[in-house]
From TrEMBL:
Keyword Nucleotide-binding in record: yes
PANTHER family reported in the protein's UniProt record: ALIPHATIC SULFONATES IMPORT ATP-BINDING PROTEIN SSUB, TAURINE IMPORT ATP-BINDING PROTEIN-RELATED
Keywords, sorted A to Z: ATP-binding, Nucleotide-binding, Transport
Annotated protein name in UniProt: NitT/TauT family transport system ATP-binding protein
Length: 272
């Protein structure tokens, strides 16, 4: 699904230090509003096809950082690199999924029309729009819901539509800001597994901000813990569970429980 990329930058990643391809880099990023420094000297690397989760105390600047990565906000210092190129405006290769799916979908448009909307803006022809929308809806398990309207769908299904709309663009990376905070626990588990499934099937790279520590550890290949004042990267945790994860089994593992407890303690320390 991802379009061909321009530059390949290899780094050592994972427990065994295997080479992995760098997609996104945050280099010395800082954000100030007036004299207030929200975060300072943030450095993060995201490798292709990995899931990186970001956690930290409320108000630490997670959303602000994600918006900088998305090119929606300009860092006050430092830079964001996508495939080695500085991000100066929202790049086509990055798609953003926000928490509030109800406001991001047009209620008067069918599911298909909602998914096609950004493609229409991009000047993609009708036939190609249809094809991409159909493929993206199939990717999120909604191929039979294309003619329905958002208000006819559950919250979880609406968020799947928002994800399909992001996928239809053929992005290299999905940036997700608390994407499942407004759905019930069972739907949230299903959507978490959808993210892992999309990563495995499409090779898509994911950066996901969450308040939910279990979600961060369950989904992440890497968990970045933010903390301090101004906010900095407090800890980078490599998650050692491999790709084969399942909700009941993985979350019951003693090393999962140990890891989520350590991350939680770290956030508490950062907050206090
Ligand atoms: N446009 C702005 N002008 C001034 N301050 C801002 C602006 N946008 C955000 N902030 C401040 O930046 C800080 C970080 O906000 P942000 O929403 O990024 O934090 P967060 O970690 O995502 O919070 P939460 O976990 O509660 O969602 C907050 O104190 C917020 O008030």
């Amino acid at each position: 699904m991802a379009e061909p990329h321009t530059r390949r930058i290899l780094v050592r990643d994972g427990e065994d230090g295997n080479p992995a391809e760098l997609v996104l880099s945050v280099r010395g990023a800082c954000k100030r509003y007036g004299t207030r420094e929200i975060f300072a000297d943030i450095n993060i690397d995201v490798t292709r096809g990995s899931v990186l989760t970001v956690v930290g105390p409320s108000g630490a600047g997670k959303t602000t950082l994600l918006r900088c990565i998305a090119g929606l906000l300009e860092p006050s210092a430092g830079e964001i690199l996508l495939d080695g190129e500085p991000v100066r405006e929202p790049p086509e290769k990055l798609a953003v999924v926000f928490q509030d799916y109800s406001r991001s979908l047009m209620p008067w448009m069918s599911v298909r029309a909602n998914v096609e909307l950004p493609l229409r803006g991009k000047g993609v022809g009708k036939k190609e729009r249809r094809r991409r929308a159909h493929a993206a809806l199939a990717d999120v398990g909604l191929e039979t819901s294309a003619d329905l309207y958002p208000w006819q769908l559950s919250g979880g299904m609406q968020q799947r539509v928002a994800i399909a709309r992001a996928l239809a663009y053929g992005p290299e990376a999905l940036l997700m800001d608390e994407p499942f905070a407004s759905v019930d626990a069972q739907t949230r588990s299903d959507l978490e597994d959808l993210v892992l499934d999309l990563r495995d099937r499409l090779g898509i790279t994911v950066v996901l901000v969450t308040h939910d520590i279990d979600e961060a550890v369950y989904l992440g290949d890497t968990v970045v813990v933010l903390g301090g004042r101004p906010t900095r990267v407090d800890k980078v945790v490599k998650v050692p569970f491999g790709r084969d994860r399942d909700q009941a089994g993985t979350k019951a593992r003693p090393d999962f429980i140990d890891l989520r407890t350590r991350v939680l303690e770290r956030i508490r320390q950062a907050r206090d």
